[in-house]
Amino acid sequence: MVYTSTMLQPSPSELLSEGDVEDLLQVTGCSTELHSPSCQTDCLSERYRSITGECNNREHPKWGAANIPYSRWLPPEYEDVWGTPRGWEPKHTYHNVSLPPVRLVSQEVLFTHNDKISADSSLSHLLVDWGQWIDHDMVLTPQSPSTATFKTGDDCTRSCSRDSPCFPIQIPSSDPRSGIQSCMPFFRSAPSCNSRVLPRSHREQLNAITSFVDASMVYGSSPSLASALRNLSSPLGSMNLNSQFWDEELPYMPFLPRVQAHLDPCGPRNSTTLGPSSRSPLLENTTSCFHAGDSRVNEHLGLIVLHTLFLREHNRLVKELHQLNPHWSPETLYQEARKIIGAIHQILTWERYLPRVLGEGAMTRLMPPYQEYDPDMDPSIANTFATAAFRFAHVTIQPMVTRLGPEYTLNPKYPPLPLHHSLFASWRVVEEGGIDPVLRGMLLSPAKLQTAGQMMVEELTEKLFQAHGGMPLDLGALNLQRGRDHGLPGYSSWRRFCNLSAPNSTSELAEILGNSTLAHKFNVLYGTPHNMDVWVGAISEPPLPGGRVGPLLSCLLAKQFRALRDGDRFWWERNGVFTRTQRRHLHNVSLSRIICDNSHITHVPADPFSRTESSEDMLTCSHPLIPHLDLSPWKEPQTDPICGPIPRIHSGYSLLCNSTVLYECQAGFKLLGSPHIRCDSESQRWSSPPPTCQDINECEGLVSSCPQHLECFNTAGSFLCSEPVSLSAVSIVAAVMVVIGGVAGLVLVLICYRRYFPKSEELISAECRHGNS
User: Fold this and answer.
1) Do the bridges between strand 669-672 and strand 692-695 make them parallel or antiparallel, or are there none, so unpaired?
2) What three-state secondary structure class fits 10?
3) Domain for residue 670, yes or no?
4) Which of 254, 450, 502, 748 is deepest in the core (most CB within 10 A)?
5) For residue 50, what are the CA distances in angstroms to 12, 57, 66, 224, 739?
6) Residue 467 pLDDT > 80, yes or no?
7) Which of 27-36, 268-277, 718-727 shows the lowest mean pLDDT across its residues?
8) Are 657 and 681 part of one and the same domain?
C-alpha cells in the first residue's frame, strides 16, 4: 500500500507482529543500531576509548556513540506525525503563512558577490577551516541511500517531483536560473531505525560518527575503517601511507581504490575547469581521492591539508613513543598516539578556537572551568547543533583559495584558485606543490568578515560543485532545506529555549538584529519572525563582543560543547586519563608546532588562528614560542614502587596498566602462562611469574602455508619454504607472514648467497628472478 504524506498512516508496529519487527530489524541492519553493548571494566577500557564511542558512559553505553540518532533539545516540528519536512506542501501554513522557498531566502538574504566582501581583522582562514575540521569529528548525517523516488523510481537528480526520499529545492520564477532549471536535487537524510519500526516515535536522523572530540576523522568511527587505515604489519602502530606519491620525504594519505575503471571523482576535469594544470596522476587501480577516517576528506584542499598533517603527526608520535617504550606493542603505540592526538584536538578547540568564536565574555559565562566528569550529561550531538548552529562558519569562507610559495609570496606554479576549483580536487595537492602552498595560504589569509550585507559568497551559492560539470548547487539553500528536512523548530522557538526574547514583530526583530533593512527582508519573506529558519536567523544576529556569533548561536554552541566536555569519560583534564605531568606538557601544545613537524614550512605564526598581517611577523620553527611536545612523561617506569622491577618478556610486549602488567607475544609466538600479572600490595610481590613466548612451529600439521611442492623449515617467529634439494646448495627462500588490510598473506622472499652456490652465475640469477616473481 502506498500512502501520501497527507494521509493518516498507521504505525509499522500496528501492521507487524513483534516477531515480524524483530525479523525486520535483523534484515535491515537496524539491530546493530538498536543493540545495547556490554561494557567491560578492565584496565584497557579505562585507559582507551572505543573506536565507536560505545561505553564511554557505562550506564548509557550508546550516548555519544556512532550510528545513534541525534538528540533533541526541542521536539521536532514536521508537517505531520510521520516526519514530512517543513515546507513539503507549498500551501501548508505556519502561523497562517506558508514558508518561502529556501532558494529565494538564499538569493534575498545570503547572496554576496565575491568581490563585495570584507576581511576579518583578527582571525585567519585557518580558524575557519578548523571549524569544519572539528565539525567532521562530531557530525556526519547520512543521506538516504536511494537516489530514486520510492513511488515511481524517478531519478532524483533529473526529476523535480517531490516524492520521498527526494525533496527538491524549487527555483523561484525571479531566480536568474529559472530559465535553465526548475529545481536543485536534494535528498532527505536517512531516518533512524527508531523512527521506522518502533511505535510512537517521530522521525529522527542519524549521526554516523562519534559525537566526542576524539579525532575520529583521523581514525574512523568503526572497527573496519580503523583497521583499514592502519599499517597492521608495522611494529610501530603506524597508519597506512600512499604507496604512489610522496611530498618529497613526507607522506600523503593512501588513495581510495577505483570502483569503476573510468571513475576518478577527485581527478582533473576538462580543460575549461582545470585551472593551471591539466596533467593527471598516473593512477592504475586507485582514484585521486584520499582515504581517511572521514569520508569528506576530499571536499576541499583545506581539509586535505589538516588530514595530512595529523596522519603525519600520528606516525611521528608512534616513532617517539617506541623510542621511549620499546616493549610496547604496535597496538599500545597506536592507542597512545591516538589518545594524545584526541587530547590535542580538545585543547586546541576549547582553549584556542571557541574563545574566538564565542568571545571571552560569553566563554567565561557559558563555559565555566572544567570540574569533573558528569555521567548524567548526555554528550550526544543535538540535531539543531548539527543541522544549523555549527554551520555558522559557512558565512566566513573566502571565495578564493590562496596558495603561497616558500616565502609566503605568490608563485606562478600554484596561483590562487576560485573556491569551486578546489572542491574534490585532491589531485592538485599531489601535482601542485603538496600541502605547503595551501597551508601557507590558510595561515596568512584572513577569514571573511560576516555582516548583515555580506553573508555567503557566490562561490557557495552559485558555483558549488560547478567544476564537476554538473548542476551548480547553493550551500545556503541546502542548509535551509536540511533544517526543514529535520523538522527544526523556527528561530523564535530557539530564542525562547535560550531564555532570550522572541521577536513578535518586524520592529522587535530589527532591534535584535540591529538592522531594520534585514528585518524588513525577513518580514517580506516569512511574514512573521516565528517562521524564520533557525540557521538564517541565528547567523543574522550581530556578534557578541570579541566573538563572531550572536546570543543565540553562543547559547547553542556553548551548550553542546559543554556537554561534549563534561559528558566525556576520556576528557583530557579528567584525573586518571593523563598524569598531572602529562597534562602540563599537553597544555602547551601548539598547532604551529604540528605544522613545523609535519610540513616543509619553516616560519609560522605564534597563534595560527589569529590573523597575521605580514610574512615578516612569522616566527622560525625553532622559536621558544613554538614549543615541542615533550613526550618524556609517557616513558613507562621500569619498577613498581611496591613490587619492584617490572618483569619483561623475550619475543613479546608488555604494558603497565595501573598495577597490572599486560603481556602479548610478537607474531609467530604463542603465550604460555597468564596474560597478565598484578602487584599484590600485601605480599609486595607480583601475583605470578611472567608468561613466556614460545615459537610457533608453522611447519607442524595444517599450520604450514608453504605450497605443496616446497618444504617447510621452522625459524624463530616465522618459517622458510624451499625446494627440498636446493635449500642448502642453491638458495634460501624466506617466507614471512605479513598482514595487509587485516588479512594474513604469504610472501616468498628469495635470499641468494653466491658463495654457497657451486652453480653458474647465470643459473643463480635465473633462480633469484624466479623466486622474486
Assistant:
1) antiparallel
2) coil
3) yes
4) 450
5) 34, 11, 11, 13, 23
6) no
7) 268-277
8) yes
**What is the tens place of the pLDDT at every residue in 717-770?**
888 888 876 444 434 434 343 333 333 333 333 333 333 333 333 333 333 333
What CA dihedral angle connects 567, 572, 574 and 577, to 10 degrees?
110
- H-helix segments, 423-550: 427-431, 436-444, 458-461, 475-485, 491-497, 506-513, 516-526, 534-540
Closest CA to 443 of 215, 595, 312, 218: 595
User: Each residue of 434-473: b (16+ CB within 10 Å) or e?
Assistant: bbbbbbbbbbbbbbbbbbbebbbbbbbbbbbebbeeebbb
Residue range(s) defining the domain that contains residue 737: 711-772
Same-domain pairing of 689 and 726: no
Cis before 165? omega within 30 = yes
3-class DSSP state of 237: coil
Residue 674 lies in a domain: yes
Is the pLDDT reported for residue 42 higher than 80?
Answer: yes
Residues in Cβ contact with 367 at an 8 Å cutoff, skipping those fewer than 6 apart: 350, 354, 358, 558, 561, 562, 565
Which residue stretches of 529-671 are H helix? 534-540, 551-566, 580-586, 591-597
724 and 756 in a common domain: yes
* 5 — pLDDT class (breaks 50, 70, 90): very low
Position 772 scores a pLDDT of 32
Whether the per-residue pLDDT at 622 is higher than 70: the answer is yes
Q: What is the mean pLDDT of the chain?
A: 87
Q: What's the alpha-carbon Rg for the chain, to the nearest Å?
A: 29
Among 32-41, 265-274, 486-495, 647-656, the range scoring the smallest mean pLDDT is 265-274
Q: What is the average pLDDT across 20-37?
A: 59
Which secondary-structure segment (H or E) carries 130?
A: helix 125-138
Side chain identity at 566, as an amino acid letter? D
Can you tell me the distance from the alpha carbon of 593 to that of 539, in angstroms, rounded to the nearest whole number?
Answer: 33
Claim to verify: residue 717 and residue 756 sit in the same structural domain: yes
Is-contact 443 485, C-beta < 8 A? no
From 121, 550, 541, select the one nearest 362 (Cα to Cα): 550
> In terms of pLDDT, which residue wins out, 736 or 375?
375
CA distance 407 to 61: 50
**Residues 685, 719: one domain?**
no
Question: Residue 426 pLDDT more than 70?
Answer: yes
Q: What average pLDDT score do residues 65-83 get?
A: 94
Beta-bridged to residue 417, according to DSSP, are 401
Residues with Cβ within 8 Å of 751's Cβ and at least 6 positions away in sequence, in order, are 731, 732, 733, 734
Distance of CA 585 to the CA centre of its chain: 25
What are φ and ψ of residue 480, in 5° steps? Answer: -65, -40
Own/partner long-range contacts of 115-118 (Cβ < 8 Å, ≥24 apart): 116/454, 117/398, 117/399, 117/448, 117/449, 117/454, 117/457, 118/448, 118/449, 118/451, 118/454
Report the 3 state secondary structure along 144-160: CCCCECCCCCCECCCCC
**Any idea what DSSP says for residue 80?**
S
Residue 497 lies in a domain: no
Do residues 462 and 380 lie in contact, with contact meaning Cβ atoms separated by under 8 Å? no
Both 737 and 685 in one domain: the answer is no
Total domains present in the chain: 2
Specify the residue for cell string 575557519: 128
Identify the CA nearest to 628 among candidates 588, 681, 674, 576: 588
For residue 639, pLDDT beyond 60: yes
472-528: pLDDT as tens digits: 899 999 999 999 999 999 999 999 999 999 999 999 999 999 999 999 999 999 999
Active site residues: 136
Q: Is the pLDDT of residue 32 over 80?
A: no
Task: State residue 161's pLDDT score.
Answer: 82
Going across the sheet that includes 711-715, the strands are 711-715, 718-722, 732-740, 743-751
Residue type, 104: L
Give me the CATH number covering residue 660: 2.10.70.10
Task: Give which of 94, 99, 80 is closest to 4, Cα–Cα.
Answer: 80
